[in-house]
Amino acid sequence: MQFTVAVDGPAAAGKGTISKALAAKFGLAHLDTGLLYRAVGAKGGDPIEAAKSLTEADLARDDLRSQTAASAASKVAVIPEVRAALTDFQRDFAQRDGGAVLDGRDIGTVICPKAEVKLFITASAEVRAHRRWLELGGIEVEVLAEVIARDERDMNRADAPLKPAADAIVIDTSHMSIEAAIAEAAAAVAARL
Ligand code: C5P
């Protein structure tokens, strides 16, 4: 069975948690595509070469979850050759037998425009910054500035900017519990299975 669920949205809106829950509930493979860009940013050197030669070991680094890695990721993510070098891996993953959930910024618009289900998970910048702050600790105001800067870069780049696909189901999780958001996302998937 080939079945792709594309989950896009800004930082800390709940994409990762929702994607993992969907993968577990429906027995689908899951790819966090942000990890690819984080690994390219963290590798250093020429980002285009880094993207072309990415290995499993690069994806397994412990420091990819940091704010520094996130920021570096969004800087290399504006480079079209970096995005192009990562495209085939993502498309191959999406086509694996048994179905897959991919989460990122351009899955429904560029990587898998024919995905059976497209979700766009969003939340207000304040709510997202607060969630990040709860995860990471630190000074909320700095985290908010960083989240906003990263979203701006992601939304305003020329190649594959962050935006909902025309046929995406938008879920705003600002005032929703994670359980309610997962239930809404799962209902959208179940309706297409
Ligand atoms: O999702 P995550 O926060 O790990 O993504 C880190 C950065 O990688 C994003 O801010 C974005 O710049 C980039 N990214 C992207 N396209 C994707 C996934 C992530 O440009 N599909």
Q: Can you identify the CATH superfamily?
A: P-loop containing nucleotide triphosphate hydrolases
- Main sheet makeup: 5 strands, parallel
β-strand number: 5
Number of domains: 1
> Within the largest sheet, what's the order of strands?
2-3-1-4-5
Give the termini separation: 10 Å
User: What structural class do helix, strand and pairing data support?
Assistant: alpha/beta
CATH topology category name: Rossmann fold
Q: What share of residues is helical?
A: 40-55%
Which geometry do the CA atoms define?
globular
Radius of gyration: 16 Å
Low-confidence stretches: none
**What is the ordering of alpha helices and beta strands?**
EHEHHHHHEHEHHEH
Separate helix tally: 10
* CATH architecture assignment: 3-Layer(aba) Sandwich
**Mean residue pLDDT:** 95
- Beta strand %: 5-15%
CATH class, named Alpha Beta
Provide the fold topology.
Layout lengths: L3 E5 L6 H12 L2 E4 L1 H10 L3 H6 L3 H4 L7 H10 L3 H15 L5 E5 L2 H5 L5 E6 L2 H12 L3 H17 L12 E4 L5 H13 L3
Parallel strand pairs: 1-3, 1-4, 2-3, 4-5
This protein binds cytidine-5'-monophosphate.
The site of cytidine-5'-monophosphate has 15 residues, from helix 2, helix 5 and helix 9.
Organism: Pararhodobacter oceanensis
Subcellular location: Cytoplasm
GO cellular component, one term: cytoplasm
